[in-house]
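FORM 7B: Structural annotation worksheet

SECTION A. Query
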Amino acid sequence: MIDWEFAVRVGSRTVPASPNVTAAEAAAVVAELREGARRSTALVRDFTGLQAPDDSAPVLVVDRPGWIRANTESFASLMDPVVAKLAAKHPGSSGGLTHAIGSRVTGAEVGALLGFLGNKVLGQFDPFHEPSGRLLLVAPNIVHIERELEVDPTDFRLWVCLHEETHRVQFTAVPWLRDHIRSLVTQVTESVEPQVMFGDLLEKVTELVKRDRDEPGAGLMDLMSSPAQREIIDQITAVMSLLEGHADVVMDGVGPSVIPSVVEIRKKFTQRRGGAGALDRLIRRLLGLDAKMAQYRNGAVFVRKVVDEIGMEGFNAIWGSPQTLPSKTEIHDPQAWISRVHG
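SECTION B. Predicted structure
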């Protein structure tokens, strides 16, 4: 119903060309990123107190098409079981289902989406890759941004590695976390009928575009979700805010001791996050990427306030079980989480 190979081809054709580097320069970047990821493991472990085993998830330094292929594999691992269950719910109506899913969520559309994102992502931990996830570092995007910001390349590469390695540590030190997030995502996707999710797409896009740009909103998923689905999405939002904010706190906490220009990097990178053009802002709004930026901010504020109040050991109670994770409300009210979990 979704041609994943076609999505890879479309995405690889539409993603912008990578920065010009020589073969020697490319090899040096790959080597430095691998070393940065390796070095970051102990730094993150010492700062957070989370005990994650070494080398439990591979580190892949990829180009833009490589990132696109890796993400189609992740999408397929999440979506194919859902599609199969939807088909089982509609026996004898595969033609209509194929039209609803196959003709509207085509490989071309998925590929175009990944092509847009493929030059923006610096790194990513994929927790759903078997058996223990994998860490992706997108070398051309890291080189592009370090050149654009005019920052020290060695410092910037280690800074990125610290953030992404924190995600690897989170998932490998807290084994139940992957299954918990997968369960939440599955609950949302299984509850959405294809014709509801995709049938009124143009109308939903128009509604979103008409909203004032400063109005809070996560994008299309907000508009296409029922109240019950939004409750689950709120849980996903809370845990993603925690994970992203925690990684930001770690990279800024560790940074000054090992990255001489970390203050300059953070300042320039934060300014860049808010400097997108009008079309880029619209696409980010449609895809919910504005909400992604809010996750970094809100999660980091939550983590810092909790750590300041009860220390890192007290904060680490958050990794005890799904019940000790903060709710979306608690992300904005750290004291409420402290009171609930610590009494």
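SECTION C. Observations
The radius of gyration is 20 Å. The longest strand covers residues 134-138.

SECTION D. Sign-off
Analyst initials: ____
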